Amino acid sequence: MALKKSVARHGDLEINQDIVFQRRMWRAERCTRYFILAALIACVLGFFGGGGWLAEREIRPPARSFVAKLPRFGRVQHRQQLILDISEIPAGEARIGVDAALLENFYVREVFPEPLRTEIRDGAVEFVFAPPSGPWTVRLELQPRRAGALEGRLRLPGGEAVEFRQWIYP
Predict the structure, then answer these.
(1) d(C-alpha 81, C-alpha 34), whole Å
(2) 36 is in which domain, residue-wise?
(3) Could you report the per-residue pLDDT of 129-165, keeping only the tens digit for each?
(4) What are phi and psi of 32, to 5 degrees?
């Protein structure tokens, strides 16, 4: 003998409904839509790397003798570029120092243009260049060693230093 389940009558219709459950489902659907919308906006703005307004940043020291351009976000074992646009050039050799914290957090894979020599001073590596006359650009190709919030410091011609922090995704 089959059990007969009671079904509520609503007007001419016999409908089995659970309004409390239905409202919970509608709330869950709205929350999911907002979450997906927020994730899409974050992607478009560059929060997860790639292009977008949030993806890159420029650091200018108070003296404004150079501009450092680097990505805000990166991935472990994925190469990225730190570009230094240097406007004021000291006479003779130009030295760009990379501190120990940057070397602990990043591999320096390539330096362009190639430095005349590399020196180790005060726990930092210094790249010595013969700068051309006029503004010039130095590109460091870095590769993060681990995920998380990483930081580093560069010391540039004239003794100015620039510190940067970067979030690295796994």
Answers:
(1) 34
(2) 17-45
(3) 887 777 888 899 999 999 998 888 888 766 777 888 8
(4) -65, -40
